[in-house]
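**Discrete fold encoding**
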Amino acid sequence: MSKENNTPYYIGLGIIILIFGYFAVTNIIDYVQKDKVVDSNRSEDRDPVADKFLYKFNKVPDFEFINQNGDTITNETLLGKVYIIDFFFTTCPTICTPMSRNLSIVTEKLAKYDDYRSISISIDPENDTPAVLKEYAARYNANDSIWYFLTGDKAATYQLAREGFSSFVAESDDPAIRFEHSGNFALVDQEGYIRSRKDAFGNWIKVYSGIEENGFPAMIKEITEDAETLLNK
């Protein structure tokens, strides 16, 4: 075949290469801009980016309770703060003690941040008055400027737990237990949104286990790290 006859072939091939190159470069740029680059290839000392690495769930519904000092605490009070929240009751014979012990560990680690708070809400407000909560708080050497133990309307408490945090709470048929509830912690950001990470299988979780359960340890390390991510952003 003559050189002249090869010319259209080379022109067509060149056009194909140019088109392919254009789309390849465009896709690479789009891939990077949309943050699809594998995170494990990035520097381990990257700055925390909460919106990217922690999923934003629903906003915490309005609430109003009284703490162990008789002060009114609302969701508005906590805006601008990062807080970890759980539901408990002071006469709990089962999981509340390890939950409170674990939350005290987390609170101690995060107490250096001015914008951090721990929130424990009683599901037994008839018994858990501010005075009772203050006595309970003393068991864990709780700093009452950082760790709020709250009590208030029972129906509002249960609604907040169930609808706001997807947390199980109920009265028990067993008189020795009296109440049942989930052993979880939830993490809330400065704007009042519940935040969380992915589990080991790549699924977003909404709450962190506050106790050792079914052979799995409490997620103290994970929730502490994620709270610091929010506090440092």
Observations:
- The chain has a mean pLDDT of 83.
- The chain is about 35% helix and 20% strand.
- The longest strand covers residues 82-88.
